[in-house]
Design brief:
The chain has one domain. Helix 1 crosses helix 2 and helix 2 crosses helix 3. The chain is mostly helical and about 60 residues long. Strands 1-2 form a two-stranded antiparallel ribbon. The chain contains 3 helices and 2 strands; from the N terminus they run H-H-H-E-E. The longest helix has 15 residues.
Length: about 60
């Protein structure tokens, strides 16, 4: 089964890439860090992967199945 990315997913990924940390991504999105962490967890589950929260801005540390 394939998951179709939504605009909110892409916005989250872009903020994580630009911010490089959950805290900075949350600031860019004007959200709490915990909200961004939960959104990342939901996206990871839907895609079947995992990104290290310590290195979330580094795509080399994201594992997708």
């Amino acid at each position: 089964m394939h998951y179709q990315l939504e605009q909110s997913d892409l916005t989250l990924v872009l903020a994580l890439s630009r911010g490089t940390t959950l805290a900075r991504a949350a600031a860019l999105l004007a959200q709490d860090t915990s909200s961004v962490h939960r959104a990342l967890g939901r996206l990871e589950r839907r895609l079947g992967g995992h990104c290290s929260s310590a290195t979330v801005g580094d795509a080399a540390h994201c594992q997708l199945s």
